[in-house]
Amino acid sequence: MFYFALAALAAHTFLVSIPARVFFIYAHQENNVSFENLNLHPAIIKAINELGYTQPTPIQQQAIPELIAGHDLMASAQTGTGKTAAFMLPALNRLATPAKIPGRGPRILVLTPTRELALQVSDATTKYGKYLSRVKVVSILGGMSYLLQNKLLSQHVDILVATPGRLIDHIQRGRIDFSRLEMLVLDEADRMLDMGFVQDVESIASFTPAHRQTLLFSATLDSTIDKIAARLLRSPKRIQVATQRAKLENIEQRLHYVDDLSHKNRLLEHLLRDQTLKQAIVFTATKRDADDLADDLAAQGHVVGALHGDMSQRERTRTLTKLRNGRLRILVATDVAARGIDVADITHVINFDLPKFAEDYVHRIGRTGRAGASGIAVSFASGKDSISLKRIERFTGQRITPSIIPGMEPKYKPRFGQNDEKSRRPPQVAHKRNRAWSPNERSPFNHTDTKKSQPARFGRSTPNDNTDNRKRSLGRSSQFNNTRVYAEPGN
């Protein structure tokens, strides 16, 4: 009896210690749960049944009931887990009932970091709300005509999907009325923070009603996200359906060490000639590299297109349409394409340049292996990529085994190429401080020694290229020097 009372007291102490504003929900898949059990409107059920949705994913199972109940929500879900439907189905369910406040302004606002993701959300919303009467979806994105957007905003709007920068422009010009807004959705919140949109997001939220329902979806829920949520959400429920270490069981990951640009190009050409490759995305570090590489591949006879932030919205939409229709076999892209592209026929993802952040690696390779299919992810790495590789392996919890193509073996030998942890440690050198070093030797304790000039990194532009303008210099790859790489603009 004494031990029972002690256990009860400990449990009570633990529960009291949890902050009152946050409730933790651990998602799990229940085989007997269907969309009909989630209290969605019959018109929505009809539409998703036509799309072939038979059973909700874990994020949908847990998020939809909480959102229909009216709670604010923080949710962590990796790409490809069905999170768009997780917030858009309950949003459409809300629209099935008449608005409490009259007007033409939006009842639902969805903020996304990139144009591609915004268009994907808009397209999915149109499909989900196919049988709901008079649901008007409008996209406000950078690169689109202001005249067209002004015309759309002057009409009745139910759901507004926007990138933060362009939406701020319209708000400052007084073209949007948020008086009847009921729900604010922050999609890919971690990406918006990485791209510097935090002030824009908070500014936009300040123009919306305080009684709104707020949803935050992110690949990770870290301390930075928690701070934003504390300012924008009210007593949110918290759902976490995926850990930061994505399993990626259906994606075969390969690694090829490279010596120089010529070696890298020869490896790429070999991979692209693979008959099993149906469609591929090749990721580069900069916009300039994407254009140059696409031109080189086109000259070699490949059906290829480029996608990056400097392209107009019309060009980007045309390129993505060709990719989805199968008229492009290869897409060369920057990280602007790492999220928001869902094409089932992409069999290969090739990291021509490794990403700056380990999280972006997961989003890049997540473009293949969609909807349960298998995929192949290939990464090129030089001797200076060892730190990036370690970060990626630590983040995914998986070791990427180096591969060799006969006849294209690298001259570079990675220092930590063995599987055992002991061999991965750098060799320890014992130095005697009382040793006299000759003038021709370099003391390990003399940090002012003159080093031989380092060879320029291989790539399409070198650090000493003075012909480049400032805009291009800000976007150069940091793979072979210490130049800082800035995030792709989302709008």
Automatic annotation (TrEMBL):
Residues 400-491 are annotated as: Disordered. InterPro entries: DEAD/DEAH_box_helicase_dom, DEAD/DEAH_RhlB, DEAD_box_RNA_helicase, Helicase_ATP-bd, Helicase_C-like, P-loop_NTPase, RNA-helicase_DEAD-box_CS, RNA_helicase_DEAD_Q_motif. GO terms for molecular function: ATP binding; hydrolase activity; nucleic acid binding; RNA helicase activity. Its EC number is 3.6.4.13. One of its GO terms (biological process) is response to temperature stimulus. GO terms for cellular component: cytosol. It is an enzyme of class 3 (hydrolase). Residues 267-413 form the Helicase C-terminal domain. It comes from Nitrosomonas nitrosa. It comes from the Bacteria. Gene3D superfamilies: P-loop containing nucleotide triphosphate hydrolases (3.40.50.300). PANTHER family: ATP-DEPENDENT RNA HELICASE DEAD BOX FAMILY, ATP-DEPENDENT RNA HELICASE RHLE-RELATED. This is DEAD-box ATP-dependent RNA helicase RhpA.
